[in-house]
Amino acid sequence: MNLFTKYRPQCWDDVVGHARMKLRLIRMATAGDIGGRAFLFTGPSGVGKSSVAYILAREICDPDNVVEIDGSKVTTSGIDDIVSKRGQLLLGNKPGKVHVINECHKLDSRVIGRLLTCLEDIRSHEAWIFTTQGVRQKQIGLFDDADSGALESRCTVFELEGERYATLFAQRAMQIAVDEGLESGQELVAYVRLAAQCEFNLRKMLSRLDAGEFLPEQAVEILESQTLSFAGC
């Protein structure tokens, strides 16, 4: 299991940075105000959009009732099928339903048009969550089609950042490296530098650590020797 998967946030306390967003979402969850809403999380890759979406979804439904799909694969018939079943309550401790559409800037304009109507009447036991790396446009919203601005206006929007939390990302990566034995006494500044090199993408930072970024040269040579021996070379 790679480090990002192993240490993927499972609760709000695990999410690095974004304190204001976390506070708002926790208050919504405490008040039972997640259902009946659509959410849009924007920001660069590796800052926690998908993890936040997953944690938020679990506030109103069991993991098996979270439907996750890439924006490029959403069809109008798929939306129609969701609408036809929206009155159904599901079994489980939390009988809700959450639809997560990742990379929603890839949505077809016809799909967006169908979604606009769907989002006008979200049932109290369901929620929609959209994530995107799309860059904000001044006149037409986050995506490439004029209708996307209307989609955005139907969502509660949270913009996630990476650079602002460089030190927090570095601290998290440093702790993981220590716990996993993947460092050789580097100071925090080395991890801050790694954050900048990875464009403040925490997932990429952990991938670099997984590959032995901060292991001493001697340890790398030992590992290479063990690998060659295991392979029978």
UniProtKB/TrEMBL annotation:
GO MF, one annotated term: DNA-directed DNA polymerase activity
GO biological process: DNA-templated DNA replication
Enzyme class, spelled out: transferase
Transmembrane segments: none
One Pfam family per UniProt: AAA_5
SMART domains named among the record's database cross-references: AAA
Top-level taxon of the source organism: Bacteria
Protein name (database record): DNA polymerase III subunit gamma/tau
Naturally occurring in which organism (per UniProt): Fuerstiella marisgermanici
Taxonomy of the source species: Bacteria, Pseudomonadati, Planctomycetota, Planctomycetia, Planctomycetales
